[in-house]
Amino acid sequence: MTPTKNKLSIVFIGCVQFSEQALKVLLSLKADNISVVGIITKSKSTFNSDHVSLLPFGIAENIPTMDVNDHSDTLNFCRQLAPDVIFCFGWSQLLSKEILTLPPKGVVGFHPTNLPENRGRHPIVWTLALGLTSTASTFFMMDEGADSGPIISQKPVSVSIEDNAKTLYEKIIKVALQQINEFVYPLRDGCLNYYVQDATKANTWRKRGEIDGIIDWRMTADSIVNLVRALYHPYVGAEFLYHGEKFKVWQSEIFNKKIPKNIIPGTVLAIENRNILVKSADTSAVWLKNIHKKVAVKVGDHL
User: What is the distance between the alpha carbons of residues 229 and 227, in angstroms, rounded to a whole number?
Assistant: First the structure.
């Protein structure tokens, strides 16, 4: 990198696995006059399944760090540090207008979809649950909307039928870290290009609830398999109910033969070791594998 007098000071906000990896990249760029001057994170989270506290980085690097579980005045914290830019990766709350307008270079956000498509909540989960074959890693300048600001970097990410939440998450992180290394220098030097999102192409994914993770045997086999993939680690796992008890399923597979339509969805068709073959919609069936605890069922039972 060509020597430069340009500098970039960053307040970093985040509390998930990707936040941790992105922060490591930024901390490695001190020699390029790119410095993290403050960190905002959560020591605990009941919302983020992939939660990571960034407090240890603040201690190790001697960087002022705020735990929002203990303090809520993030605006004053940022004002005191006066950063050139704020990076907000892996943060479920919208930032206030005062914070968004505080740094002269704005606030950079991240969303793992092909914006303006698929704004909103749980992007990795929805991508897999809906059976999409591609997504994207997108960085944008945050505004008062949700995932609606001008895009500064976007790269496609393929989604294979073998992917689950863990492998897709890893794919996205790998691409996103490369992007950070590419756009942070023009951001520092004041020559960053961006383009405004086309709002006419936007849709928004809603927040998912516990009921969205329950397998309904009236779903097709491929929809059930997609749900299991979507809720794989680090997420909570897809579940089915039997006699009021919940059972988590971490792997599943479409049965390669047709089942008569007159067999009721939810009927147990076969049992091999701890794997259970269950009738699903139409003529389909699905193998449930890697169930987290033993299910006391026999062939012919109904889930």
Answer: 5
